[in-house]
Structure formats: structure tokens, C-alpha cells
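User: Before I run my own analysis I want an independent prediction to cross-check against. Here's the chain; please return only the C-alpha cells and, at the end, one sentence I can use as a sanity check.
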Amino acid sequence: MSDIFDLFRKLEKKKETVQPISVLVACLGNPGKEYAFTRHNSGFLFAEYYSQKKNFQIDRAKFDGLCGETTLGGVRALFLCPTTYMNCSGTAVRKAADFYKIPSEKIFVVCDDVNFEVGKLRIRKKGSDGGQKGLRDIIGKMGSEDIPRIRIGVGKKPTPDYDLADWVLGQFSKEDRKTLEEVFCRCGEALELAVQGKFEEAMGKYN
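Assistant: C-alpha cells:
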């Protein structure tokens, strides 16, 4: 009988040592197979890469999205892929942030950016949305621009009059796809530094 009580005590102690979630990583994209490999889904693609690399699942339906937990930069983090479609990403992010009481400065957004070439990363601690509508909605719903973000370059439009929606909802070329694994690897490393508050190091190394 004493062995059973010892087991209970060990289980309770293990529960007490589990860190609370203090960081939210919002990886943006659109749900649905038709969008799976589009430029706009760079955030989702990164989440898939990183979760496989770190051996955790992003498959729990909650907060109007799919989410999963892992340790990131020494803290417990929730990865969230909103299923609200890109332009309403803030709805899911706000729900998760409110539930875990996560402040804006601890919300890290990973999204695409048409202002940079494929393979380019841009890390910022805060600022405007830069024309990215998912990020814009998150800033609006959170009521703050103090939201760290890593933007993944997906290439500029081939011509000025090319429709932006057609471009971001188009698929990566075969050549561009070859670079994605290396880009996502660097993105993960930058994210780990940023979560630790090492923004200057992350920007200096990966921007």
C-alpha cells in the first residue's frame, strides 16, 4: 500500500514541476488542402517543420485553431495555427492569450512577407503590420504593436500590376521549395533566441 502512496506523491510532484505556458507562438496561414503549399501558408509550414524537428504535435483543436505545447528557449510555449483564415488570425490569438494571460510582448508571430526575397528573414520586436493582414488583425485584436514577429520572405510580385492575392495564394516554385527547409531551420533558431529576449543577437544573425 505504501508503494501506491509513494507513486501518487511522485505524480503530484511531477505535476507541480510542469511550467505554466508563458509564451504564445502564432504561426499564420489558411486552413484547407488547397492552401497547403502556398506562399501565404509559410507560418503553417514552419510550424509543421518545427514540430517534427522538436517531436511534438500541433493537433489539439482549441482557440479557433490547432495547437500544441513544447519547451522553447527554456520556457513552456503554446504553438497556435489559427484556423480562422489569415485575415482573422487575431481572433484565435486573443482567445489563447486571454486564456493563458499572455501579454502582447510574449506573443511571437511567424508569417509570410512579400517585401522580401525567398529565404530572407526579418525579425522585429514590435512595429506596424507591414501590410501583412494576419499580423494586422492580431495587432488590432490585442490593441498593441508590441508584438514580436518573424517574417519569412516569399518573394516580391513579378510585376507591379500582378494581383497580390493571386501571388500570396500561389504555390512556391520547385526552386523555392528547395530552400524552405534551410529557411525554417534558421527561423527556428531565431525564434529560440527571441523567446529568451536575445532580439539583438537574433536580428544580427538572421536578418
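Sanity check: Helices lie at 2-17, 42-54, 89-100, 133-142, 164-168, 174-195, 199-206.
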